[in-house]
Design goal:
The active site is at 10 (tele-phosphohistidine intermediate), 82 (proton donor/acceptor). The protein is an alpha/beta fold. It is built from 8 helices and 6 strands; from the N terminus they run βαααβαβαααβαββ.
Length: 206
């Protein structure tokens, strides 16, 4: 089997549980987030992934998730940080829509933060490096909700706006692979069947 990329979102934080946008705020995992992170090895095993290279976002919640998942981080990459939400840091999509009905991060970006193009460019840089690293085996990218969605759609050549069509729950794994030598999303948002996380919660932050 050809080497593949595992996108791993960090486990739950207090703000991911409440739907608050979290980029630069450096939160640790909740107790539930710790439990979620510890389920990642079984997910990777079930998906037949054995990461030979592990890169992480610099945020504590991502690095802690990698540690709890038994993954040895080879490099911390600024380009894997979550979308900078700027003025929307710490608030929910519902609150934003009161003043900006129809707002969406993938099309509108964040005032005082990053534009969609800036985040797309970061994802492309990570994926270019990951393609090279795949020669040595599977690659794990431990990062965030929105960043993982951007990485997935850019892997298959879609515009960043299409990230709205994917979800990424806390501690979920998405697998980027190939089909007939063309990039594909092999598995998306894989979580344990026994998870107690409310899957209907607002998926807006990182």
């Amino acid at each position: 089997m050809a080497s593949r990329i595992a996108l791993i979102r960090h486990g739950q934080t207090t703000w991911s549980a409440s739907g608050q946008h979290t980029s630069v705020t450096d939160l640790d995992l909740t107790g539930e987030g710790v439990r979620q992170a510890r389920t990642i090895p079984s997910l990777l095993s079930g998906l037949r992934l054995t990461p030979a290279t592990v890169w992480s976002s610099p945020r504590l919640r991502a690095r802690r998730t990698a540690e709890l998942a038994g993954l040895q981080i080879d490099a911390v990459m600024d380009d894997l940080a979550e979308w900078n939400y700027g003025d929307y840091e710490g608030i929910t999509s519902r609150q934003i829509h009161v003043e900006r009905p129809g707002w969406a991060i993938f099309t509108d970006g964040a005032p005082g933060g990053e534009t969609p193009q800036e985040v797309s460019d970061r994802a492309d840089r990570v994926l270019a490096a990951a393609r090279t690293a795949l020669a040595g085996g599977d690659v794990a990218l431990v990062c965030h909700g929105h960043m993982s969605r951007v990485l997935a759609v850019r892997w298959v050549g879609l515009a960043i706006t299409e990230g709205r069509m994917l979800l990424m729950d806390p501690a979920a794994v998405t697998v980027l692979g190939t089909y007939h030598d063309l990039p594909c999303i092999e598995h998306a948002n894989v979580v344990p069947f026994h998870t107690t996380v409310d899957q209907s919660s607002e998926a807006s932050d990182a």
